[in-house]
Amino acid sequence: MRPTPEPRDGSADTDRRRGADGRDETHAERIDRELMELLNELRIALPGVQFLFAFLLVVPFQQATERATEFQRDVYFVTLVAAVVATALLIAPAAQHRALFRQHDKEELLRRSNRLAFLGLCVLAVAIVAAVVLVVDFLFALPQALVTGGLVAALLGWLWIGSPALQRARGSRTGN
Fold first, then answer.
1. What residues have CB less than 8 Å from 59, skipping those under 6 apart?
2. Given 50, 74, 103, 116, which residue has the most CB atoms within 10 angstroms?
3. How many angstroms separate the CA atoms of 126 and 10, rounded?
4. In the chain, what are the helix, strand and coil shares in percent, each to the nearest 5?
């Protein structure tokens, strides 16, 4: 039997257990792994929201914005604010991880970071849908913009929330 390494977060948790996923790790090791997985996942989402935010910062300085309707300006405002909020929410877990370094409370950090990341993705979906509505309305017409925005909202809702929720429900029925 191999020796059990000391947990990295300073806790007394040294009992190795095989989790539901078959991993042989201590509670502290699991928390470390899950936190690193979350931070790595956020590295994927952040460039997208940052690109959208940068695009939104440039839009008002374009000549075509003089033709924008009041509705388009309102949608632009919602899109800009949603992109800012999504950026803050998606960066918060990494910032909090750094600010709370060596405070020995990774489990609470993981719980809070998971909530922030999920909320950040929801707000990012709002920003994406609003951006699509804005561009399609500006280039085509409001009815097309609303239909396209609705389809994008449905797609993101299914891929980011609906499908995972369905998988969780199936897993809980089978005992996984």
1. 65, 76
2. 116
3. 40
4. 80, 0, 20
